[in-house]
Amino acid sequence: MSKRNGRVSLESLGAKTVAATIYSPEGEEIVVQIRALKSHELRTLTAGMGPEPEAPVGDYERNTAGEVEAVPDLKDPQYLLAMADYGSRRGYLLLINSLENVEIPGDTEDEQVASLQGMLALWAEQQILDVVNRINGFGQRELREAQASLTPFADGS
């Protein structure tokens, strides 16, 4: 039991593995074991990706102090593609580190990402990532709020 004298054990707050049932387009039930990540695992995973892509300079304007500042072009097509690729790689790395009962071919992280890109169907990816995000603290509402605050799509464009 996780409660002792009204207290919660640290073990009860550790990473858990959940069995998630996903459904193929034909209605087949597939059970996948998904492990919640620890915060240091997530930091290590994202730190290994390097920095997010930077938007190119789109214009210059004066700030309130009268100094000229570069204004990034957050709608630049190549920047948007680079951000989408960055987010996609992060999602694949989450899958590689979270899926317990799915064998992902490849000896290196890059090979495993390539395997997922080439073999994992979108219906499965979306359902699994939904569970991965939920058990790691991001529900759909939180993901939308985070995405709106961090990407150029905040205005819905």
Question: Helicity range of the residues?
Answer: 40-55%
Q: Indicate the overall shape.
A: extended
Oligomer: single chain
Rg to the nearest angstrom?
20 Å
**What do the pLDDT scores average to?**
85
* Helix-strand makeup class: alpha+beta
Main β-sheet description:
2 strands, antiparallel
Number of strands: 6
Give unreliable regions as ranges.
149-157
The rounded distance between the terminal residues' Cα atoms is: 49 Å
Strand order of the largest sheet: 1-2
Number of discrete domains: 1
Order of helices and strands: EEEEHEEHHHH
Beta fraction of the residues? 15-25%
How many individual helices?
5
Characterization of the model:
With 157 residues, the chain is an alpha+beta fold. The protein has one domain. Helix content is 43%, strand content 18%. The protein contains five helices and six strands. Strands 1-2 form a two-stranded antiparallel ribbon. The protein has a two-stranded antiparallel ribbon with strand order 3-4. β3 and β4 form a beta hairpin. α2 packs across α3. The longest helix has 22 residues.
